[in-house]
């Protein structure tokens, strides 16, 4: 058995951080602009987290329905 691959929330967050850094490096006009970029990246992370939670809830409901169908 091999070790699990490094795919998870931490790995994805590193990729998002790199994307945010790249955006910041491309446009270094004002300090305010950099702050706006940071806020945008933070908002993106929050929406991704909420979307992930919604998907998990849907998956749980689906599993419960499958379990019910098996018991009947």
TrEMBL record:
Biased composition (Basic residues): 46-72
Region annotation Disordered: where it falls in the sequence: 1-72
Domain of life of the native organism: Eukaryota
Composition-biased stretches (Acidic residues): 15-40
Protein's name in the database: Uncharacterized protein
Organism field: Hirundo rustica rustica
């Amino acid at each position: 058995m091999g070790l699990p691959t490094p795919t998870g929330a931490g790995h994805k967050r590193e990729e998002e951080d790199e994307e945010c850094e790249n955006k910041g490096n491309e446009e270094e006009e004002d300090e305010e602009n950099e702050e706006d970029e940071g806020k945008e990246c933070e908002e993106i992370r929050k929406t991704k987290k909420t979307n992930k939670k919604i998907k998990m809830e849907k998956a749980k409901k689906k599993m419960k329905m499958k379990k019910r169908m098996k018991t009947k």
